[in-house]
Amino acid sequence: MSLLGNTFIDLDSDNILKISTNSTSKGNQEKFYKEDTDEYIKLPFYYQNRYWKDYMVEHLAWRLSTFFNERRFSVVKQNIVKTSYDTYASISKNFMPNESEFVSFSRMMKLDNQNSC
Asked: Closest Cα to residue 34, out of 102, 93, 74?
């Protein structure tokens, strides 16, 4: 089984919107929204003089969670696709219901530390 996806995504397609990159920790990761399937696509990002292949880590984390999770928490399914930008990317379904707010793991840990003092 290959980790790298066989699916091809044309990022210049009419049903794909480029969205803000300010939400990443470094603010430099290109993200796209695929309207017809309600999915998000994240490209690798450049930092410290190299490209970081986030898609591999996210896909492996999801795959590992399927073996060890025991349903204590949900993990977003991340697949890998080939893009028209000549790179691979991660793709995931929109996991946020309307009116929801995303809270990152690091933010949860900060809040937990503040509450335990």
From this structure: 93
Q: Which CATH class is domain 8-116?
A: alpha beta
Instruction: Check if the beta carbon of residue 56 is closer than 8 Å to that of residue 3.
Output: yes
pLDDT tens per residue across span 4-24: 667 899 998 888 988 865 555
| pTM of the predicted structure, to 2 decimals | 0.72
Q: Which helix (H) or strand (E) holds 63?
A: helix 54-68
Q: What would the two tokens of residue 75 be? A: 């993990």
Neighbours of 108 (CB within 10 A): 10
Cβ density class 26-39: b for 16+ within 10 Å, e for less: eeebbbbebeeeeb
Tokens 């986030």 found at: 54
